[in-house]
Amino acid sequence: MLNPFCSVQKLQCADNSHQREVSMSVYRDHRGNFVMDFWWNGQRVKESTRQKNRAVARQMEAARKTDLARGEVGLKRRLCPEFRNFVESEFLPWFEAMHQDHLRTHRRHQVAIVPLLDFFSGRTLNEIDQGMIERYKLRRIQEKSFVTGRKLRPATVNRELAALRAVFNLALKHSLVKSNPVRGLRFFREDNEQTRVISYEEEAKYLAAAEARLREVAVLILNTGMRPEEVYRLRREDVHLAEGYIHVPFGKTRAARRDIPLNRDARVLLASRLGRLGTGHFVFPSKRDWSKPMGQIANTHARTVKRAGLAWFRLYDLRHTWATRAVQSGMDLPTVAKTLGHAKLNMVLRYAHPTEEHHRAAMLKLEQYVTANRAESHEKSHESRAWLQ
C-alpha cells in the first residue's frame, strides 16, 4: 500500500521489472484548489484535483501514480494539451474537414472560438470545469458587441458554448479528458421569435445610404426572400432570366434547394449585374478574387444602418421583411414556406408577423364582416316573425 503522505515513493511497475522514483508535490492554485504536479517516466503530470483539502488531494495524487504504475491510464496516454494549442492545431482543422459542405456552420464556429480562446488561453483542457464555464457565461452575457454596441444576445453566447462542447467532444475521442464539462450545462434561454420588420420608409433610407454592392444584395433579398449567404454564393448558371427564376442548389435540407420566381425588380437587378459581370462565375464575386464569392458584409451593413439613422436590424431581417409582406399581401403559407426554403409551415410563423397597421386593418375587416352578417341575420329573423304573424 502506498503512503500518500510521503514526499518520495517507490512505485512498482505492473511487470515488476523496475521501479521509478517520483517526487510528490501538491500545492494550491489561484482558485484555492490543490494541484498535483510530478514527473513520471520523463513526462510532467500536472492536473487539478479540484479539491481544497490537502490530505484528499495527496490521496488523489497517490492514486493517480498507482494508475500510471499499473498501466491503467498508461504510459502511452498523451498528456493533456493546453486549450489554445488543441483548438488551433487539432480542432479547427478537423472541424473544417468534417464540415466542407456546411460552410456556414464552419464560419460560425470560427467566430465563436475567438472569445473562447481569449478566456481559456493558458489552461489545459482538464483544468476547465463547469465552474469556470459558468464564469465565462456570466462575463459574456454582460459584454457588448463591437458591431452593434448592444449587449450580446443569449443566442450568441449559446453558439460559443456549443463550439466549446464540440471541442471537448473531440478531446474525449482522443482520450485527453475524462468527461465533457459542457455536457449538462444549462444554456441561456433564447427568444427565437424574430419580430423586426422594416417599414417602406426605413427601406428607402437604408437603400439610399448603402453602397452599390450592399444595396443590390439588399434589394435581391427584399424581392426574393433569399438568405444573405444564398445571395453571396449565387452563380451565373443558377440565374435563369428567360424562364424567370433563380435556382438555389445548396442547403441543409431538400426544401432549401429550390427555385425562386423573380419579380420585375429582381429581374432588372440581375440583368444589370450579369451584363457587368463579364465571364465571372459568381454574380457577387469577391473584390480580391473574382473566382470566389463575396464574403460577409455585416460591418458594412452596420455602418449603413447607423449612417441612415435607423434602429438596429440585421441584414437577415430583410428576408423576414419579405416573408411578412408576402403574408400581408395574401400569399398562402405553403407558398411562402416553399419560397423561403422551409420544409414545415411552423417555421414560416417565425418570420410572418403582422405589423400594427396590418393588425388593425384585419380587425376592422373582421368587424365589418360580423356587422354585415349580424344585420343580415336580424333582417331574416324580422322577416320570419312578420311571415308568422
Describe the structure.
It is a single chain. The chain is mainly alpha-helical and 389 residues long. It has three domains: 8-70, no CATH class; 83-173; 200-348, Intergrase catalytic core (hpI Integrase, Chain A), CATH 1.10.443.10. The protein has 14 helices and eight strands. The strands form three sheets. The chain has a three-stranded antiparallel beta sheet, with helices on one face. Strands 6-7-8 form a three-stranded antiparallel beta sheet, with no helix packed on it. Strands 1-2 form a two-stranded antiparallel sheet. A hairpin with a 4-residue loop joins strand 6 and strand 7 (245-248). Helix 2 packs antiparallel against helix 3, helix 3 crosses helix 5 and helix 7 (212-224) runs antiparallel to helix 9.
What percentage of the residues does DSSP assign to strands (E)? Answer: 5-15%
Helical residue percent band: 40-55%
Largest sheet, spatial ordering of strands: 3-4-5
Ranges with pLDDT <50 over ≥5 residues?
Answer: 1-23, 72-77
Number of domains: 3
Number of strands: 8
Determine the structural class based on helices, strands and strand pairing.
Answer: mainly alpha
Radius of gyration: 31 Å
CATH class of the largest domain: Mainly Alpha
* Order of helical and strand elements: EEEEEHHHHHHHHEEEHHHHHH
Question: What is the average per-residue confidence, as pLDDT, rounded to a whole number?
Answer: 83
Annotated CATH architecture of the largest domain:
Orthogonal Bundle
Query: CATH homologous superfamily of the largest domain - what is it?
Result: Intergrase catalytic core
Shape: elongated
CATH fold title of the largest domain = hpI Integrase, Chain A
Count of runs of 4 or more consecutive helical residues: 14
Largest sheet properties: 3 strands, antiparallel
Distance between the termini: 111 Å
